[in-house]
Amino acid sequence: MTVLQLTDVTGGYTRKPVIKELSFTIGEGELVGLIGLNGAGKSTTIKHIIGTLMPQKGEIRLNGVTLNEDLDKYRSSFSYIPETPVLYDELTLKEHLELTAMAYGIDEHTLASRSQSLLKEFRMEKRLNWFPSHFSKGMRQKVMIMCAFLVNPQLYIIDEPFVGLDPLGIQSLLDQMDEKKRDGASILMSTHILSTAEKHCDRIILLHEGQVRAQGTMNDLRRAFQMPNATLDDLYIAMTKEQDNE
Ligand SMILES: Nc1ncnc2c1ncn2[C@@H]1O[C@H](COP(=O)(O)OP(=O)(O)OP(=O)(O)O)[C@@H](O)[C@H]1O
User: Fold this and answer.
1) Atom of ligand 1 at shortest range from CA of 40
2) Cβ of residue 44 lying under 6 Å from some atom of ligand 1
3) Given the CA of residue 47, which atom of ligand 1 is nearest to it?
4) How far apart are CA 143 and CA 154, in angstroms?
5) Rounded to an integer, what distance in angstroms lies between the CA atom of residue 172 and that of residue 60?
6) Each residue of 202-216: pLDDT tens digit?
7) Could you give the percent of the chain with pLDDT greater than 70?
8) What is the ipTM of this complex?
9) Residue ID of nearest Cα to ligand 1 atom 6
10) Which domains does the chain possess?
11) How far apart are CA 133 and CA 130, in angstroms?
């Protein structure tokens, strides 16, 4: 079943489009990587999917509806982990989890059981009553990750998740992602850590100057670039060279 469908999406910040005629889908239980150079349009694509930017052309459907057709259904179908954590300075970790539960209508019992396992997984049990000003960068990121996983949505949208996390945090995140996938959730993740993307993503979308240069499994990409034994790093560099030759 298709969870997310972008059809010919063109958009950006001004009338001059940043992303151009993007089309791709994400199915149930799939982890899809969004890969591209700095400025390729990954975050801009994500901003269109989460609804902070509206397409100039084309259509985005999540669980069958566009944002305009059914705002509540659309919004409750995903959770988003931004590249830079956005936390409330005056709320503790516990209160962040409670606020998220309230916003998504999660009952107290579910909140308690999901929080307990997330706090353990991300080694944050002792920090429940801490305020964000006392958290390290990685801890701030973990708060956002825990809030996103607390919601248990159909689709997770994760913007460059690995940079601020320590190796245990990365492993915990990958484990959580695997578990959610097994339950049928879908994940769209942008990252520059190509070895991790190659290892964990079911499919990859290579963005180049706001357009899809190639998409599919690693084998599909190797065929598209006619590089049979290439790693994702090799393919990425080949794409960069194409840019240089233009
Ligand atoms: N708020 C903004 N207003 C106007 N232009 C923007 C804005 N944010 C990004 N852009 C432009 O949109 C283009 C794509 O940027 P975007 O942030 O989507 O790239 P990215 O692929 O996420 O890059 P990175 O890997 O560096 O995070 C760039 O040319 C950038 O200058």
Assistant:
1) 21
2) yes
3) 18
4) 20
5) 31
6) 999 999 999 999 999
7) 98
8) 0.97
9) 13
10) 2-85+154-244 (3.40.50.300)
11) 8
